[in-house]
């Protein structure tokens, strides 16, 4: 299993739990004997022979210093605290690090653009989810959310189209965002007609410069091309020339005769153009599917999962975690303890 690469010069120490502690700057340890060298080599201070003004507040500190570490347990303890504090500071300066838990990331993934029809006819309640009747948009939204959740490692984008086509979500690995905008899809927002060719053209524009090995569009609609400036088959040929595969899905129950009231007040649209959708898929090397209910639509997305499998190969890496705050905190605690120890004689005299 691949792990994070570390410089060969970095020292390491085994720590509790079987982990390894690395020093990012091991040369900082050379500063450990610095206080001792200063103590041994620095010239001694000359004794003060002339009189000097002494303040009562400093008298106790001076008396403690004059006692010397060899004659006072407080002095010896103070020296020990300072030594440990210096040690902790140097260890923090050496930047101790450890390896975190392995994190898996896909080696590669597909660029996959979803094209969802949001024309007015998607309001029709002619699909069933189990025994419950639901609108086409509700069923498409739910099944598409589950499909997106399964596409781990893929970059997924979202195109909505009605009379016009627009990019709702650019290609991203943030699948939660794609699902959020799927939930927010509003039927009729882009007009009541269906611009299938424009949606394909927009997907080609977004996918043609991508470097992924597999670039795919899944186009879902319930009607025929009735708007836009690009013919679906022309857009499909352009997609083929750029190596983009298109799978098309025709959604909706079987057509039935409309009543006079439905023709007067219902959604006026052309029936599903299966011939064109099938041709678009065939030209680009994709497949055409027909969904008449939620179960069929779910089955179609599962079949697309098989045709366009997500890359399940992962490369594991272990992040380096900085551990210098721990010795830095120890140094802070030791310095506070040293200050309290120095103040102890003054507090005792103040109580007498």
Strand content: 15-25%
Number of domains: 2
Q: Please, what is the average pLDDT?
A: 80
Secondary structure tally, helices: 11
- What radius of gyration results from the CA coordinates? 37 Å
What series of H and E elements makes up the topology? Answer: EEHHHEEEEEHEEHHEHEHHEHEEH
> Which CATH architecture of the largest domain?
3-Layer(aba) Sandwich
**Principal-axis shape:** elongated
Task: Give the termini distance in whole angstroms.
Answer: 68 Å
Helix content: 40-55%
Description of the molecule:
- By secondary structure, this protein is an alpha/beta fold.
- It folds into 2 domains: 11-43 and 56-101 and 319-351, no CATH class; 108-311, 3-Layer(aba) Sandwich (Rossmann fold), CATH 3.40.50.
- 41% of the residues lie in helices and 20% in strands.
- It has helices at 34-41, 56-67, 73-93, 136-150, 175-183, 196-207, 232-241, 260-265, 274-284, 294-307, 325-351; strands at 11-14, 20-23, 96-99, 103-106, 111-117, 127-129, 132-134, 155-161, 165-172, 215-221, 244-251, 288-291, 314-317, 320-322.
- The strands form 4 sheets. The protein has a 6-stranded mixed sheet, sandwiched between helices. A 4-stranded antiparallel sheet has the order 1-2-3-14. Strands 4-13 form a two-stranded antiparallel ribbon.
- A hairpin with a 5-residue loop joins strand 1 (11-14) and strand 2.
- Helix 4 (136-150) runs parallel beside helix 10 and helix 6 packs parallel to helix 7.
- The longest helix has 27 residues, at 325-351.
- The protein is elongated and about 105 Å long.
- The chain starts with 10 loop residues before the first strand and ends with a helix.
- Mean pLDDT is 80; it is low at 1-18, 57-71 and 265-269.
């Amino acid at each position: 299993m691949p792990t994070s690469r570390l410089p060969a010069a970095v020292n390491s120490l085994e720590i509790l739990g079987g982990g390894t502690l690395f020093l990012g700057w091991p040369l900082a340890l050379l500063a450990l004997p610095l206080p001792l060298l200063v103590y041994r080599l620095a010239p001694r201070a000359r004794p003060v022979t002339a009189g000097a003004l002494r303040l009562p507040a400093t008298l106790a500190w001076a008396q403690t210093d004059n006692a010397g570490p060899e004659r006072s347990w407080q002095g010896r303890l103070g020296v020990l605290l300072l030594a440990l504090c210096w040690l902790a500071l140097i260890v923090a300066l050496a930047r101790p690090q450890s390896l975190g838990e392995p994190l898996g990331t896909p080696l590669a993934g597909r660029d996959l653009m979803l094209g969802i029809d949001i024309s007015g006819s998607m309001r029709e309640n002619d699909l069933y989810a189990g025994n419950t009747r639901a609108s086409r948009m509700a069923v498409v939204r739910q099944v598409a959310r589950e499909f997106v959740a399964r596409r781990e490692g893929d970059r997924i984008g979202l195109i909505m189209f009605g009379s016009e086509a627009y990019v709702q979500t650019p290609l991203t690995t943030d699948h939660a965002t794609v699902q959020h905008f799927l939930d927010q899809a509003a039927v009729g927002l882009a007009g009541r007609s269906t611009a299938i060719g424009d949606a394909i053209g927009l997907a080609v524009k977004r996918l043609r410069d991508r470097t992924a090995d597999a670039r795919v569009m899944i186009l879902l609609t319930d009607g025929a091309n009735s708007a836009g400036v690009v013919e679906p088959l022309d857009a499909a040929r352009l997609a083929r020339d750029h190596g983009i595969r298109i799978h098309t899905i025709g959604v909706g129950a079987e057509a039935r005769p409309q009543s006079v009231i439905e023709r007067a007040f219902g959604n006026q649209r052309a029936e599903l153009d299966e011939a064109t959708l099938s041709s678009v898929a065939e030209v680009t090397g994709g497949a055409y599917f027909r969904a008449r209910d939620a179960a069929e639509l779910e089955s179609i997305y599962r079949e697309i999962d098989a045709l366009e499998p997500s890359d399940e190969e992962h490369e594991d890496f272990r992040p380096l975690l900085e551990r210098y705050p721990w010795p830095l905190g120890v140094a802070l605690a030791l310095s506070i303890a040293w200050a309290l120890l120095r103040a102890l004689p003054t507090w005792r005299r103040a109580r007498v």
